[in-house]
Amino acid sequence: MAAADSALPPIAILGAGSMGGAIARGLSRSGLATLGVTTTNRSRAKAAELDGLEAVTSLALEEHPTGNTDAAAAADIVLVGVKPAMVPDLLREIAPALRPGAIVVSLAAGVTIATFEERLGDGVAVLRSMPNTPALVGRGVTGLAAGSRADAAAVATARRLFETVGTVIEVPESQIDALSTISGSGPAYFFLLVEEFTKAAAGKGFSDAEARLMAEQTFIGAAALLEASGDDPAELRRRVTSPKGTTERAIAVFQEARLDDVFVAATDAALARARELAQGR
User: Which residues form the Pyrroline-5-carboxylate reductase catalytic N-terminal domain (predicted)?
Assistant: First the structure.
């Protein structure tokens, strides 16, 4: 495997929307993309959002109709970030242009590795990924599953790529949908908690600005403490929860509401929907 600070091979990101764009920005910041990143988007307006990033060439398909095949032909790693329904047509388009030994990584939710392997042939290593939106600030969590033709070197290369935008967890494909209900959807759960905590603060007489500041910074600070301490979150919770104190009374309300059951039910519902999407429903 290449050294951690060595350059990544040439990369193409086909369909560089929110997630693909976040990865392009992470690659640009990392300094590892010295051999180049080519991104594609359908519109010039969307492609313009990535203009000016170091080492990144951003193509608009409305100006460069062969942009996807041109980008794929020039890359050793191809990330597919188009909408799931568009994936089969895109794979048929780029398959003849791929380099021998190319690594193709799916960013598309619900599209199986088998779908990629069937359309791309034996000479291509396929991996399936599930990044999340904190990749936009370099703090993402990406689940990564290897296909049948992805060897250790291909996995290591893909891992280095995604580590430019955060943490990587390698899982079998059978766990990708479950992972999506935790790290993939997890930021939305967090934002919902901050939203409701802000409403609670406003309801106690604080201004909207004060309520938002208290809620956001309390969660951000708690997360920073959790990361810095390395302690179990249950232990940190116990340290804040003095016996017979105010926090203990509040925690009791959460426990009486069966917050544990709510999280299990919510992630189960997300998993059921992921499986429906995988079946095209």
Answer: 11-110
The sheet that has 103-106: what strands, in order across it? 56-60, 37-41, 11-14, 77-80, 103-106, 125-130, 140-146, 166-170
CATH homologous superfamily, domain 186-278: ProC C-terminal domain-like (1.10.3730.10)
Model confidence pLDDT, tens digit, residues 119-144: 998 899 999 999 999 998 889 999 99
- Structural contact between residues 80 and 90, judged by C-beta atoms closer than 8 angstroms: yes
- Characterize the bridge pairing of strands 37-41 and 166-170: unpaired
**Domain 11-171 fold:** Rossmann fold (3.40.50)
**Of 265, 87, 111, whose CA–CA distance to 173 is shortest?**
111
Domain extents in the chain:
11-171, 186-278
DSSP letter assigned to residue 62: T
Distance set, CA 249 to CA 193, 241, 255 (Å): 19, 9, 10
Indicate left, alpha or beta for 48 from its phi (over 0: left) and psi (-120 to 50: alpha): alpha
Q: Which residues contact 248 (CB under 8 A, 6 or more apart)?
A: 241, 242
